[in-house]
Design a protein that fits this description.
The chain is of the alpha+beta class. The protein is 43% helix and 12% strand. The protein has two domains: 150 residues, no CATH class; 124 residues, no CATH class. The protein contains nine helices and seven strands. A hairpin with a 4-residue loop joins strand 6 and strand 7. Helix 3 crosses helix 5, helix 3 crosses helix 6 and helix 4 crosses helix 5. The longest helix has 19 residues. The radius of gyration is 19 Å and the shape is globular.
Length: 276
């Protein structure tokens, strides 16, 4: 189970819907970077990595942890008289990442590295290392040129100053014991008092599932804190960066969560999570 799957449970979904109203998204925005291939999910994950690298460079004191992709880079995979070195792919990506932090140049090597990291990410999240089907591994390292162009356009829309932290910058943070409560949860970033998710989607709309995900992360932060942030740190704003629109949408926690009802909701959340 994960936070995403936990939120799909009908009773959880209905409780969130009854408890929290979705705030208005605002006026429509122009699609600045339409998808250039059908690899929507892969490009989205690759951009998550690329964006975090960008923020790490503009926030030298950012707290970072192990990449999800590194958790999959444990061994070489043998199939059909072929071999894929997952540790080798991760090491090559790490070099491109370090070169970028040093130079600030978004080159072909970095873009390819983020796609490879996205491919490794899938292996871990789907637990493919322990499956009998090796078909997915045949795709590792195969990169569509259009995806590289797509990533280049997406990163060109980022305004690093918008994500410049004053005190706290935690990239890909987890929520201590609360992450384990739902079987795993990690968000994209915490910048000062804001928790932000990246959505690389082609429609400028707020899906209920995306809103619930943000609120779910906030609930987890109240239960287990944010790994890498000061113990007294509090989230006061939640937001989504719509990467294909170059737009950061934010709202205040107090506008959607009633403080006097939160303790009761936290108790319910912990009880139902433990029962799953």
């Amino acid at each position: 189970m994960s936070l995403t799957s936990f939120l799909k449970n009908p009773d959880v979904r209905e409780r969130f819907k009854a408890e929290f109203s979705v705030p208005p998204l605002g006026t429509s925005k122009e699609l600045l970077a339409p998808p250039l291939s059908q690899n929507h999910s892969l490009v989205g994950t690759a951009f998550d990595y690329l964006f975090r690298f960008c923020l790490e460079r503009s926030n030298p004191k950012a707290v970072t942890g192990e990449w999800i992709a590194e958790k999959a880079a444990l061994c070489d995979i043998e199939f059909d008289d072929c071999s894929v070195s997952l540790p080798g792919i991760a090491a090559k990506a790490k070099k491109a990442y370090m070169d970028y932090l040093r130079t600030g140049t978004v080159d072909d090597a970095l873009l390819r590295a983020t796609v490879c990291l996205a491919q490794l990410d899938v292996i871990f999240r789907r637990d493919l290392l322990h499956g009998a089907d090796n078909s997915y591994f045949k795709t590792i390292g195969k990169i569509h040129p259009a995806d590289l162009r797509d990533l280049q356009r997406l990163i060109s829309l980022v305004k690093p100053g918008t994500f410049k932290a004053k005190t706290v910058c935690v990239l890909n943070p987890r929520f201590g014991r609360a992450s384990k409560l739902v079987g795993g949860a990690d968000c994209d970033m915490v910048i000062d008092d804001a928790l932000i998710e990246i959505k690389t989607i082609k429609n400028f709309q707020l899906e209920r599932s995306h809103f619930d995900q943000l609120v779910g992360y906030y609930i987890l932060s109240r239960i287990g804190g944010i790994t890498g942030a000061p113990k007294d740190h509090q989230i006061r704003r939640l937001g989504i960066y719509f990467s294909r629109f170059g737009h950061l949408w934010m709202f205040k926690v107090d506008d959607v969560i009633k403080k006097n009802q939160l303790p009761k909701f936290l108790s319910w959340f912990k009880a139902i999570a433990k029962a799953r």
